[in-house]
Write a structure and sequence with these properties.
Two copies of one chain form a homodimer.
Chain A lengths: L3 H14 L9 H8 L3 H13 L3 E4 L5 E4 L8 H9 L26 H19 L11
Helix pairs in contact in A: 1-3, 1-4, 2-3
The first copy, chain A, binds a DNA duplex through α3.
Chain lengths: 139, 139
DNA sequence: ATAAATTCTATCGAGTAAGTAGGGTATTAA
DNA sequence: TTAATACCCTACTTACTCGATAGAATTTAT
């Protein structure tokens, strides 16, 4: 299960993607429309901005807007930002590899072998699902 | 990432599967061989027993043994037992469905639509990976 | 200038889970 | 009767989750 933070982030990105290249949205409006606690949402939008997905304008009339193309923001990106590794074991993580402290012989480890396969399947579908995917009506 | 508990469970099951229908193993021996804290392992083996995967024999010379066929114990089973839902959102969980508290119109929710696809892909590979999969040497 | 609206920052707090460790009871074989 | 083992319960520390609180900084409208 993903964290609520991650889910809220995706919902906010979808809302902002619906106004892509059409100016900014207020945190307060997104908060109301998506049922996300406002102060929590502030933190989330800020993190998304720092990560380069969003831009912002401060002060009166300010707000957040999509900076990257929604078709180029993947669920894998957002999941990694808020919830960490896609891989189920640290030793099969693509971007954040760590050895398992209880592992004797990593090269021969059959857990690593099988969980690498699982990670790759999971990764592929999460990379192929983008913010744009949530906008289309078609099935 | 899965919990250490879940990973330890899989490692213990593999060790026991290697002695399938060849008597029992001691908790202490599995603990040493797999680098799993003994007291933690006790709880894990007990849970696996209560879930029907293992059998046990008490007293002197007792221990745990595989009860189910290793080829019929899937990673999905173990993950669900220790770490919960495979689905990333409660509303797309196959076995433990719950509605999202922030969702307005679930039927029209595109998060549900896309995350249902992700859940199904993830589920399939986790169901197709069994304890037996970790035993085979071939690639 | 002043006030209002907004982003930005930092911190705090309750609740829950993760990862153990400790101590004791029940059962069995030698 | 003793030792080895499964079984069971509790407690502990650490970290994370889901927010709430309290403002500071910035921009615009008036």
């Amino acid at each position: 299960m993903m964290s609520k933070k991650c889910k809220y982030a995706i919902k906010a990105l979808i809302a902002l993607a619906e106004h892509y290249e059409q100016g900014n949205l207020f945190t307060a409006d997104i908060s109301k429309a998506q049922n996300i606690p406002k102060k929590f949402l502030e933190q989330i939008l800020l993190e998304l901005k720092h990560a380069g997905f969003l831009g912002s304008k401060q002060g009166y009339g300010g707000g957040y807007y999509m900076k990257k193309n929604p078709a180029e923001i993947t669920v894998a990106d957002i999941y990694r930002l808020f919830d960490g590794n896609i891989a189920l074991l640290p030793c099969v993580s693509l971007l954040r590899y760590e050895s398992c402290d209880d592992c004797q012989d990593e090269a021969a480890c059959t857990l690593k072998r099988e969980f690498a396969k699982i990670r790759e399947q999971t990764r592929l579908i999460m990379v192929n699902t983008t913010i744009q995917s949530f906008l289309t009506q078609e099935k």
